[in-house]
Amino acid sequence: MTGPADGEDPEDREDREDREDAGDRKDRLALDRDRIVGELRRAGCVFAEEEADLLLAEAADASALDRMLAERVAGTPLEHVLGWTEFAGLRILVDRGVFVPRQRTRLLARQAAALARPGEIVVDLCCGSGAVGAAVAAAVPGIELHAADLEPAAVRNARRNLEPLGAHVHEGDLYAALPDAVRGRVRVLAVNAPYVPTGEIGRMPPEARDHEPLLALDGGGDGLDVHRRVAAEAADWLAGGGSVVIETSRAQAPVSALLFERAGLAARIVTDDDLDATVVVATHPG
Ligand SMILES: C[S@@+](CC[C@H](N)C(=O)[O-])C[C@H]1O[C@@H](n2cnc3c(N)ncnc32)[C@H](O)[C@@H]1O
Q1: Fewest CB atoms within 10 Å of the CB: 116, 127, 155, 203?
Q2: Cβ(237) to ligand 1 under 6 A?
């Protein structure tokens, strides 16, 4: 039996070529990474290295990578470019035109989870992508989860995140979206409603102003218009001893807490300096 003309075994040649291909790809990626980091830096991205790695990992091919990079450089939020974000250890799908979950909202999810038990009803009101509900469901398996939002795009997005968990996602204006069967039976009402005062929207970063719906941000004159409406009906929807957990800012918290006190609930303010987060926890006396 004679060997290959060039003396190299075919299997060895295949291995060598695979190694060379992998080496070429690594070199190309390193070149791409440097270029991407540079472009992201020039566009003002603070975490250019991390973002470059995420874009490289996510892009299916070179043209997808170029398209994603161009969008990011033009100011589209990274989460909308990738189509997902990490929240409380979960990968949450985030559609274009839907509010991007903020890391500070982990305090809301944590406080809500601490108050819920398996079998109890938890509502993620003003759910956006459904990140809060998903985090509570992951922390407390076996809850009956409902989520609701007024914005159809958010409802579609939340369905993609929450229906695989067995949750029910409803479309409509605050409580009007919820099935009557949960009235008076909600153990935890987790709410991240819009709370930016109208006059401050113009000072928000363009990523939020230009890519997130006004409905997700604008809380009216003092930022608490939606909080007022949530407080007004909370006692009707909560079970005895059930709680509302609602995100707010440190400055707005005392007024937000007062709204719930006036609605007959016992309110306290919880803050987390590391997350720069504040929530009001308001409990139905039962
Ligand atoms: C600040 S975003 C929070 C989204 C999500 N909970 C999160 O933390 O990522 C506020 C959400 O409230 C929704 N929203 C605003 N007004 C509403 C209303 N009257 N009824 C129901 N949802 C409303 C918006 O569409 C938006 O998705």
Answers
A1: 203
A2: no
The domains found in the chain, sorted by start residue, are 10-74 (no CATH), 95-283 (3.40.50.150)
* pLDDT tens digit sequence for 39-85: 999 999 999 999 999 999 999 888 999 999 999 999 999 999 999 99
- Measured in residues, the chain has a length of 286
CB atoms within 10 A of CB 260: 26
Q: Which SS3 state, helix, strand or coil, does residue 53 take?
A: helix
Is the CB of residue 130 below 6 angstroms from any atom belonging to ligand 1?
no
pLDDT higher than threshold 50 for residue 2? no
Count the Cβ atoms, other than its own, within 10 Å of residue 7.
Answer: 6
Q: Does the beta carbon of 283 sit less than 6 angstroms from any atom of ligand 1?
A: no
Structure tokens at 80: 């909308």
- Compute the distance between CA of residue 3 and CA of residue 264 in angstroms, rounded to an integer: 90
